[in-house]
Amino acid sequence: MTPAFWSPWVRATLATLLLLGGLWVAGSLIPSETKHEVTVMEWMAENRTSFTDDLMATVTAFGSPAFTFILLGLVAVFVLVRLRSRAWFGFLLMSMLAPAVYDRWMKQLVERPRPDFSRVLEVSGYGFPSGHATSAAVVAGALVILFAGIGPSKARRYVVIAAATFALLVGGSRIYLGVHWPTDVLGGFILGLGWVAICYLTLRPALAQSSAT
User: Fold this and answer.
1) Distance CA 110, CA 187 (A)
2) Conformation bin of residue 125: beta by default, left when phi > 0, alpha when psi is -120 to 50
3) At a CB cut-off of 8 Å and minimum separation 6, what does 187 contact?
4) Across the chain, how many H-helices and E-strands are there?
5) CA nearest 190: which of 139, 134, 147, 149?
6) What is the pLDDT of residues 137-191, one digit of tens each?
7) Any idea where the domains of the chain sit in the sequence?
8) First to last CA, the chain
9) What digits encode the pLDDT tens for the residues 33-85?
10) CA distances from 119 to 46, 83, 100, 132, 186 (A)
11) 163 with 189: CB under 8 angstroms?
Protein backbone atom coordinates (compact mmCIF):
# COMPACT_ATOMS: atom_id res chain seq x y z
CA MET A 1 0.00 0.00 0.00
CA THR A 2 1.22 3.50 -0.76
CA PRO A 3 2.16 5.90 2.05
CA ALA A 4 -0.74 8.13 1.02
CA PHE A 5 -3.12 5.35 1.95
CA TRP A 6 -1.98 5.64 5.55
CA SER A 7 -2.67 9.35 5.72
CA PRO A 8 -3.91 10.67 9.10
CA TRP A 9 -7.48 10.84 7.87
CA VAL A 10 -7.47 7.25 6.64
CA ARG A 11 -6.03 6.10 9.96
CA ALA A 12 -8.64 8.18 11.77
CA THR A 13 -11.43 6.53 9.78
CA LEU A 14 -10.11 3.06 10.55
CA ALA A 15 -9.68 3.91 14.23
CA THR A 16 -13.22 5.28 14.38
CA LEU A 17 -14.63 2.13 12.81
CA LEU A 18 -12.66 0.04 15.29
CA LEU A 19 -13.89 2.13 18.23
CA LEU A 20 -17.53 2.04 17.17
CA GLY A 21 -17.40 -1.61 16.15
CA GLY A 22 -15.84 -2.60 19.46
CA LEU A 23 -18.47 -0.73 21.43
CA TRP A 24 -21.23 -2.25 19.32
CA VAL A 25 -20.00 -5.77 19.99
CA ALA A 26 -19.40 -5.10 23.68
CA GLY A 27 -22.75 -3.41 24.19
CA SER A 28 -24.58 -6.19 22.38
CA LEU A 29 -22.87 -9.08 24.16
CA ILE A 30 -22.36 -7.82 27.72
CA PRO A 31 -25.57 -8.20 29.75
CA SER A 32 -26.70 -5.13 31.66
CA GLU A 33 -28.49 -6.71 34.58
CA THR A 34 -25.50 -8.48 36.08
CA LYS A 35 -25.41 -9.24 39.78
CA HIS A 36 -22.80 -6.57 40.44
CA GLU A 37 -24.62 -3.86 38.51
CA VAL A 38 -27.93 -4.59 40.22
CA THR A 39 -26.16 -4.49 43.59
CA VAL A 40 -24.70 -1.05 42.81
CA MET A 41 -28.06 0.30 41.65
CA GLU A 42 -29.88 -1.07 44.68
CA TRP A 43 -27.30 0.33 47.10
CA MET A 44 -27.61 3.80 45.58
CA ALA A 45 -31.41 3.62 45.65
CA GLU A 46 -31.39 2.65 49.34
CA ASN A 47 -29.11 5.55 50.31
CA ARG A 48 -30.83 8.39 48.47
CA THR A 49 -31.92 11.58 50.22
CA SER A 50 -33.80 14.59 48.93
CA PHE A 51 -30.57 16.61 49.08
CA THR A 52 -28.53 14.13 47.04
CA ASP A 53 -31.43 13.73 44.58
CA ASP A 54 -31.37 17.48 43.90
CA LEU A 55 -27.57 17.56 43.82
CA MET A 56 -27.25 14.71 41.32
CA ALA A 57 -30.01 16.17 39.15
CA THR A 58 -28.01 19.41 38.99
CA VAL A 59 -24.73 17.63 38.30
CA THR A 60 -26.23 15.54 35.51
CA ALA A 61 -27.48 18.67 33.72
CA PHE A 62 -23.86 19.70 33.11
CA GLY A 63 -23.26 16.47 31.22
CA SER A 64 -25.95 17.06 28.65
CA PRO A 65 -24.95 17.29 24.97
CA ALA A 66 -26.34 20.82 24.93
CA PHE A 67 -23.92 21.88 27.66
CA THR A 68 -21.08 20.22 25.75
CA PHE A 69 -21.86 22.19 22.60
CA ILE A 70 -22.15 25.48 24.48
CA LEU A 71 -18.98 25.06 26.55
CA LEU A 72 -16.72 23.69 23.82
CA GLY A 73 -18.24 26.10 21.31
CA LEU A 74 -17.37 29.09 23.50
CA VAL A 75 -13.86 27.79 24.10
CA ALA A 76 -13.44 27.16 20.36
CA VAL A 77 -14.50 30.73 19.52
CA PHE A 78 -12.08 32.08 22.13
CA VAL A 79 -9.24 29.97 20.70
CA LEU A 80 -10.00 31.16 17.18
CA VAL A 81 -10.56 34.86 17.94
CA ARG A 82 -8.08 35.52 20.73
CA LEU A 83 -5.39 32.93 20.08
CA ARG A 84 -5.92 32.79 16.30
CA SER A 85 -5.43 29.03 16.21
CA ARG A 86 -7.42 27.33 13.50
CA ALA A 87 -5.92 23.95 14.39
CA TRP A 88 -7.16 23.97 18.00
CA PHE A 89 -10.46 25.46 16.83
CA GLY A 90 -10.90 22.53 14.46
CA PHE A 91 -9.92 20.05 17.17
CA LEU A 92 -12.62 21.34 19.52
CA LEU A 93 -15.30 21.34 16.82
CA MET A 94 -14.33 17.85 15.68
CA SER A 95 -14.54 16.60 19.27
CA MET A 96 -18.22 17.54 19.43
CA LEU A 97 -19.09 14.88 16.86
CA ALA A 98 -19.15 12.00 19.37
CA PRO A 99 -22.04 13.22 21.55
CA ALA A 100 -23.80 14.74 18.55
CA VAL A 101 -23.80 11.73 16.22
CA TYR A 102 -21.96 8.60 17.33
CA ASP A 103 -23.77 8.28 20.65
CA ARG A 104 -27.17 8.23 18.93
CA TRP A 105 -26.02 5.76 16.30
CA MET A 106 -24.68 3.40 18.93
CA LYS A 107 -27.90 3.49 20.95
CA GLN A 108 -29.90 2.48 17.90
CA LEU A 109 -27.47 -0.31 17.04
CA VAL A 110 -27.23 -1.86 20.51
CA GLU A 111 -30.84 -1.23 21.67
CA ARG A 112 -30.06 -1.88 25.31
CA PRO A 113 -32.96 -1.02 27.66
CA ARG A 114 -32.40 1.37 30.53
CA PRO A 115 -32.89 0.24 34.15
CA ASP A 116 -36.59 -0.09 34.87
CA PHE A 117 -36.61 0.31 38.65
CA SER A 118 -36.22 3.10 41.17
CA ARG A 119 -35.63 6.02 38.83
CA VAL A 120 -35.36 9.57 40.13
CA LEU A 121 -35.74 10.96 36.60
CA GLU A 122 -37.94 9.66 33.81
CA VAL A 123 -36.16 9.44 30.48
CA SER A 124 -36.82 7.61 27.24
CA GLY A 125 -34.71 5.86 24.65
CA TYR A 126 -32.01 3.24 24.86
CA GLY A 127 -29.24 3.23 27.44
CA PHE A 128 -25.92 2.18 25.86
CA PRO A 129 -23.78 4.18 25.75
CA SER A 130 -24.69 6.95 28.16
CA GLY A 131 -24.90 10.21 26.22
CA HIS A 132 -24.16 12.26 29.32
CA ALA A 133 -21.07 10.18 30.09
CA THR A 134 -19.95 10.55 26.47
CA SER A 135 -20.39 14.32 26.61
CA ALA A 136 -18.61 14.63 29.96
CA ALA A 137 -15.69 12.54 28.69
CA VAL A 138 -15.43 14.67 25.55
CA VAL A 139 -15.38 17.90 27.57
CA ALA A 140 -12.84 16.52 30.04
CA GLY A 141 -10.57 14.98 27.42
CA ALA A 142 -10.67 17.93 25.03
CA LEU A 143 -9.92 20.52 27.72
CA VAL A 144 -7.07 18.47 29.18
CA ILE A 145 -5.46 18.14 25.73
CA LEU A 146 -6.06 21.82 24.99
CA PHE A 147 -4.40 22.97 28.20
CA ALA A 148 -1.54 20.52 27.71
CA GLY A 149 -0.94 22.09 24.31
CA ILE A 150 -1.40 25.80 24.88
CA GLY A 151 -2.40 26.33 28.50
CA PRO A 152 -0.27 27.68 31.36
CA SER A 153 1.98 24.91 32.69
CA LYS A 154 1.08 25.66 36.30
CA ALA A 155 -2.63 25.13 35.59
CA ARG A 156 -2.36 21.78 33.81
CA ARG A 157 -2.42 19.60 36.93
CA TYR A 158 -5.51 21.36 38.24
CA VAL A 159 -7.25 21.07 34.88
CA VAL A 160 -6.63 17.30 34.86
CA ILE A 161 -8.01 16.93 38.39
CA ALA A 162 -11.04 19.13 37.68
CA ALA A 163 -11.77 17.39 34.36
CA ALA A 164 -11.57 13.90 35.85
CA THR A 165 -13.74 14.91 38.79
CA PHE A 166 -16.31 16.45 36.46
CA ALA A 167 -16.55 13.36 34.26
CA LEU A 168 -16.78 10.96 37.20
CA LEU A 169 -19.48 13.04 38.90
CA VAL A 170 -21.58 13.21 35.75
CA GLY A 171 -21.20 9.50 35.11
CA GLY A 172 -21.98 8.67 38.72
CA SER A 173 -25.05 10.89 38.66
CA ARG A 174 -26.55 8.88 35.79
CA ILE A 175 -26.21 5.67 37.82
CA TYR A 176 -27.48 7.33 40.98
CA LEU A 177 -30.56 8.70 39.23
CA GLY A 178 -31.39 5.20 37.98
CA VAL A 179 -31.33 6.07 34.27
CA HIS A 180 -28.22 4.08 33.27
CA TRP A 181 -26.45 0.88 34.16
CA PRO A 182 -22.78 1.27 35.18
CA THR A 183 -21.68 -0.35 31.91
CA ASP A 184 -23.70 2.26 30.00
CA VAL A 185 -21.60 4.93 31.69
CA LEU A 186 -18.38 3.02 31.05
CA GLY A 187 -19.32 2.73 27.38
CA GLY A 188 -19.91 6.48 27.24
CA PHE A 189 -16.51 7.19 28.77
CA ILE A 190 -14.81 4.90 26.25
CA LEU A 191 -16.64 6.48 23.31
CA GLY A 192 -15.95 10.06 24.44
CA LEU A 193 -12.29 9.61 25.36
CA GLY A 194 -11.62 7.34 22.39
CA TRP A 195 -13.04 9.88 19.96
CA VAL A 196 -11.09 12.78 21.52
CA ALA A 197 -7.91 10.72 21.22
CA ILE A 198 -8.65 10.05 17.54
CA CYS A 199 -9.25 13.77 16.94
CA TYR A 200 -5.97 14.67 18.62
CA LEU A 201 -3.87 12.06 16.82
CA THR A 202 -5.39 13.05 13.48
CA LEU A 203 -4.63 16.74 13.94
CA ARG A 204 -1.43 16.36 15.99
CA PRO A 205 0.97 17.79 13.37
CA ALA A 206 -1.14 20.92 12.93
CA LEU A 207 -1.72 21.23 16.69
CA ALA A 208 1.99 20.90 17.43
CA GLN A 209 2.81 23.58 14.89
CA SER A 210 0.11 25.86 16.31
CA SER A 211 1.38 25.36 19.88
CA ALA A 212 4.92 26.26 18.82
CA THR A 213 3.93 29.61 17.32
Assistant:
1) 11
2) left
3) 23, 26, 27, 106, 128, 129, 130, 133
4) 10, 0
5) 134
6) 999 999 999 988 877 778 888 989 999 999 999 999 999 998 999 999 999 999 9
7) 53-212
8) 35
9) 777 888 888 888 888 888 988 999 999 988 888 888 898 889 999 888 888 88
10) 12, 45, 25, 16, 19
11) no
